[in-house]
Amino acid sequence: MTKTTSAPYTSELAEALAPDVLERLVRYARIGTQSDRAHERSPSTPGQLELGQLLVDELRAIGLTDAAQDGNGFVTATLPGNVPGAPVIGLLAHLDTTPDETGAGVEPLVHRAYDGGTIELPRGGTVLDPERMPELTAKLGHDIVTASGDTLLGADDKAGIAEVMAAVAYLASHPDVLRATVRVAFTPDEEIGKGAFLFDIDGFGAECAYTFDGSEAGEFTDETFSAASADVTIHGIEVHPGMATGKLVNAARLAGRVLAALPQDRLTPESTSEREGFIHVHAVEATAGRATIRTIVRDFDDDLLAQHVALLRRTAEEIVATEPRARLEFKTEDQYPNMRTYLDEHPRVSAAAEEAIRREGFEPRRVPVRGGTDGSILSARGLPTPNIFTGGHEYHSRREWASVQDMASAAAVAVRLAGVWTEPAPG
User: Fold this and answer.
1) Cα gap 268→30, rounded to integer Å
2) Strands 75-79 and 88-94
3) C-alpha 288: how far from its chain's center?
4) pLDDT category of residue 98 using cuts at 50, 70 and 90
5) How many helices (H) and strands (E) would you count in the chain?
6) Does the pLDDT value for residue 4 go beyond 60?
7) Sign of the C-alpha dihedral, residues 300, 303, 304, 306?
8) Cα separation of 376 and 326, whole Å?
9) What pTM value is reported for the model?
10) Percent helix, strand, coil in the chain (nearest 5)?
11) Residues 6 or more apart from 312 whose CB is under 8 A from it?
12) pLDDT-derived band of residue 40, with 50, 70 and 90 as boundaries?
């Protein structure tokens, strides 16, 4: 039953979970866990090991005595079920934050009982303006967590970690609540698309899993972009500029021409929405002698994804061909697939997520996500893993924020999932 209070909780369960979820997010957010694309080891940064070890200690304190962190940084633990014959399910969240925005020295702030106005953060001139954030407008009366304005918050995905931890702690302390066996996993390097390839699915031993890595309350995702990276490297000829006549081949200027020749009003993140894909230039490293354009390419349709990669390659080839002395390298790599291809084969997994969300007082909304999760890779590898909301917003930016009430609802959904899986399959 939904309970009406001065703060808009969806249920008594969510209200009970809220203090623990908030305390955990604030604690975890202070540990810097940015991943690093340049490092091949797992995890790519030591902060992920630090947070992982803290979680191992906390899981053991809860009573999950097998909690451990392996050599690649994966944290796993088991909460045994209390219903014979129920399947084993997984609850997952990722340890790292994006490498695209600083996550060092995070100082979380809690803005109690949001009044609907602008939230001005104390550092960096960062402002949360409800006029450009309709999701914030809808959180009147919620407790809003932000960073201090000069870092991201790290709710992506420390809100998810906090929710899984709070749910498991609740289940462990309420043995009367029916539950399937729950396997917990916290994974490294999700933001750079690496961690899930090293996950020991057989050793994990779950029939299915759920990542808590989404956004708006009530949403869940069983469809994501398919993703590739594509790097364009142009080799020029560097010469002292005072002696460059007829000799210099400027790779930086050629790279600029490639960028200018790419579509400007379509196929970019800022010009697309819903099911439209894009080519996103996220870094340019350039000197006169060598220039690299780093991109990520996305689409829900694999054929269209291939067309976008081909367009980028063709554009670069045409520009570089105008200077016969220049040389082009083009490197592309698949990153993750659209999980829908694999989850369609396991309809009960998504149906259970919908039912758990419904029991928490929401009408479930199936939302194709313009991004990816560990579940994209894990589903393709044989562990069906859709994604559930966390209550976080404005990810990968200093404007990142999360609703305490929505985080508590996500934790409650995790508790309810463990119960849904004790029941016979519908039909």
Assistant:
1) 33
2) unpaired
3) 36
4) very high
5) 11, 18
6) no
7) positive
8) 38
9) 0.89
10) 35, 20, 45
11) 230, 232, 262, 279, 295, 297
12) confident
For residue range 336-350, list pLDDT tens digits in order.
899 999 999 999 999
Q: What is the pLDDT of residues 208-231, one digit of tens each?
A: 999 999 999 999 999 999 999 999
Asked about 150 being catalytic, the answer comes back as no
- DSSP H or E segment with residue 47: helix 46-62
Q: Which of 58, 156, 190, 354 is catalytic?
A: 190
Is residue 213 within 8 A of residue 377, CB to CB? The reply is no
Q: How far is CA 165 from CA 158, 193, 240, 305, in A?
A: 10, 23, 59, 37
Catalytic, out of 20, 96, 156, 406: 96
**Alpha carbon distance 22, 411 (integer Å):** 11
3-state secondary structure of 230: strand
Q: What is the pLDDT of residue 5?
A: 38
Contact by Cβ (8 Å): 420, 355:
yes
Residues 6+ apart with CB under 8 A from 288: 236, 238, 248, 250, 251, 252
Q: Strands of 109-111's sheet, edge to edge?
A: 109-111, 144-146, 401-403, 392-393
Q: Is 209 exposed, middle or buried (0-12, 13-18, 19+ CB in 10 A)?
A: buried
The stretch 382-401 carries a mean pLDDT of 97
Look up residue 6 and give its two tokens. Answer: 């001065």
For the chain, which domains are there? 12-224+338-420 (3.40.630.10), 227-336 (3.30.70.360)
pLDDT at 427: 64
Give the DSSP letter of residue 233: E
Does the annotation mark 344 as catalytic?
no
* pLDDT on residue 223: 94
CA gap 188, 34 in Å, rounded: 10
Q: Are strands 181-187 and 88-94 parallel, antiparallel or unpaired?
A: parallel
Model confidence band, residue 7 (pLDDT cutoffs 50, 70, 90): low
